[in-house]
Amino acid sequence: MPEPILRRVATDNDYVKKRVDVLERWAQSGEMEPWKAVLMAELIRKEGGRGVSMTDKDFEELFMSEEMVEIMRAQVDGPWMVYVEQTFSERSNNFVMGFLGQLEDAASSAKP
Amino acid sequence: MRVFKSIPPDALNQIREQIRSAELPTVQALEQAALLINKSADYQDALKSGLVPRLTGDDLMAFVERVRRDRQLVDASRRTNDKQAKRPSQLQADQAEGTSDELLSELFNDFMHERSAWQHMGAGLATLGDIAAEAIAGGAQVTEIAGWLRAQRHDYAPANPNMRDGIRSDRSKLEASLAA
């Protein structure tokens, strides 16, 4: 019996358990890269049975949480830090975009 | 300015000189600089290895707030000085000539020179920031540069929507297998 890859949490409800079971099978059989299975399991756990979301914000919150990144990294090796860096960069980029937009608006409204 | 090992040593300096001498339109010269940096192995390696230093949104937000505050202070001070020194008709004439645009250029220049912010955003952007700041100091329009930077940032932002789309697609597969 191979060692499980995905963690189980005592507070997981049936909705989460069912999906984590399938993901575990896929990760063990090679049908899905293990790190992707871990990531999806944590996203599903984050939903907590409230239905499918997986919005950009869900991904961002996961990768911006040092605790969650450590939890995922402890389960399996993966490009975790690459996605952490990308999330930081993307968030910073969004702030800068907003700022540039304000500068452009202000500059164009300053013209008669 | 950071020197990229994989970029021909004089290439960026040549572009800066072209901007200074107005040999090339500013935006065109900046595009050339962006192409050089974008292709450089250093920058690509930094992105791939995750070595590009991180900047938190909070860091940047604090900086943006500081710029806003500075801008308000400078603006208020300038209005006070103008009122004391000029008649209303002169004030209107100044505004029509783009006094506010000059102020924005100054602030945008400061923004470009905020070394830590640009370096955090990525080494390539730090170089572009330097070049763009020089272009503005040399008379390029702030709106022109802002528009160009907007396009560049879109290309440089190393977000990876493909990963997310892949996970979403796998999720649909997972739900389908449970429903079967």
Please report the distance between the alpha carbons of the first and last residues of chain A.
76 Å
| Secondary-structure element pattern of chain B, one letter each | HHHHHHHHHH
The overall strand count of chain B is 0
Specify the structural class of chain B: mainly alpha
Low-confidence stretches of chain A: none
Order of helices and strands of chain A: HHHHH
**Distance N terminus to C terminus of chain B?**
59 Å
Shape of chain A: globular
The largest interface is: A-B, 42 and 46 residues
Q: What proportion strand of chain B? A: under 5%
Helical fraction of chain B equals over 70%
The biggest sheet of chain B, with number of strands, parallel, antiparallel or mixed sense and barrel status, is: none
Number of strands of chain A: 0
What general form of chain B does the structure show? elongated
From the structure above, extract its key features.
A: 112 residues; mainly alpha; globular; B: 180 residues; elongated
Kindly describe this structure.
The complex is a heterodimer of chains A (112) and B (180). Chain A is an all-alpha fold and 112 residues long. Helix content of chain A is 71%, strand content 0%. Chain A has 5 helices and no strands. In chain A, helix 3 (56-64) packs across helix 5. Chain B has helices spanning 11-20, 26-39, 41-49, 57-85, 88-96, 99-113, 115-121, 123-137, 142-156, 161-179. The longest helix of chain B is centred in the middle third of the chain and has 29 residues, at 57-85. In chain B, helix 2 (26-39) packs parallel to helix 9 (142-156) and helix 8 runs antiparallel to helix 9 (142-156). Chain B has 180 residues and is mainly α. Chains A and B meet through helix 1, helix 2 and helix 5 of A and helix 4, helix 6, helix 9 and helix 10 of B.
